[in-house]
Amino acid sequence: MFTSTSALRLASRRIATTSTRSVSSASSSTATKVVKEGSSRYANEEYLRKALPLLLASGVAIVGASQLSSNNETSTTTLCRSKSSNKVEAAIQQTKDKFAKYWPRNIMILFGPPGAGKGTHGPKIEDLLGIPQLSTGDMLRAAVAAQTEVGKKAQAVMKAGGLVSDDIVVGIIRDRIKEDDCKFGFILDGFPRTLVQAQALDKMLAEEGASVTKVIELQVPDEVLEERICGRWIHKSSGRSYHVKFAPPKSMQVGDDGKPIAESMKDDETGEPLMQRPDDTASALVKRLQGYHNETVPILNHYSPNGIVKTVNANQKMDGVWGEVLDSLSRK
Ligand code: AMP
């Protein structure tokens, strides 16, 4: 498969934009198995897409193993036969450490009003780039559920659709982006929401010589959002999102009043009950949209001069939105 060292180096470069989860989970045996599979399977595009990170990971591992190897064999063919899983693991770790230390972090903001699809497309970007989506809304909801000090302070304002104080959310993000899974970058969802937060973010990134690399704005007209938000049901533990009209769960039953019966709303995969967010109401949405237009949209002007703001029409079929998101992520 890999016939030259330069091809392997190319693969190792590609790893920077490949799921780190795939890399870390790619055992040498799995990768070897994939390499040995019959060529007929490669005709299947979906299979190839899934196998690619494993192939790349094995390539990186082999390059690293060659550097660690105590004998002087340099031929890739010989190295392919190496059975030392310790060396392979060490090589993978060494490569990951190298990217974590010397490559800039990919720091993205997923931008858009409530109901624009940040929660739908964020996980897909996560899978594509292997960097985590950090949702301040999710973190605050977890704090409310756990009734921490932050949660107690945030609860009422969140339910009413207002904004939690800048100090609180900036503190949450400051701590979160220091965690190990953010070392290659992260996708911010719901943060920054005010100019003050954007400036605080820039300042904390500047401390490591970094800056925001991309802002993806999901554009949806306000009038479309009420139907999206008020019909939304969520599976709390996975974050899977359903909609009574556009994506109903298989279990949904409708009552005589034409509305879904709450007890029938169950997650397709686990059968667990779905829930509606307390702020997914028409009245809270009015306030959330006001906050979005008055306080959040000016952030686009803040980042526009850097040429990093990309706009996506998120008022179209999901595949169309995802196509535009992919376009906005790619280098031109
Ligand atoms: P979301 O899930 O992003 O819609 O956020 C839910 C709620 O959490 C918001 O309506 C706010 O009350 C609060 N929240 C989330 N992120 C922020 C933020 N960056 N600044 C202030 N409040 C926030």
List keywords for this structure.
alpha/beta, five-stranded parallel β-sheet, 53% helix, globular, disordered N terminus, binds adenosine monophosphate
Protein topology:
Blueprint: H1 5-14, H2 20-25, H3 28-36, H4 39-42, H5 45-68, H6 76-80, H7 85-102, E1 106-111, H8 118-129, E2 133-135, H9 136-146, H10 149-159, H11 166-176, E3 185-189, H12 195-206, E4 214-219, H13 222-230, E5 232-234, E6 241-243, H14 282-296, H15 298-303, E7 309-313, H16 318-329
Parallel strand pairs: 1-3, 1-4, 2-3, 4-7
Antiparallel strand pairs: 5-6
Residues 114, 136-137, 140, 157-158, 161-164, 169, 190-191, 193, 197, 279, 288 line the site of adenosine monophosphate.
Provide a compact summary of the structure.
By secondary structure, the protein is of the alpha/beta class. It contains 16 helices and seven strands. A hairpin with a 6-residue loop joins strand 5 (232-234) and strand 6 (241-243).
| Structural class by SSE content | alpha/beta
Q: How many E-type strands?
A: 7
Approximately what portion of the residues adopt beta-strand conformation?
5-15%
Along the chain, the helix and strand elements come as HHHHHHHEHEHHHEHEHEEHHEH
- What characterizes the major β-sheet? 5 strands, parallel
Cofactors, ions and other ligands in the entry: adenosine monophosphate
| Distance between the ends | 29 Å
Low-confidence runs (pLDDT<50, min 5 residues)? Answer: 1-55, 60-71
Helicity range = 40-55%
Strand order of the largest sheet: 2-3-1-4-7
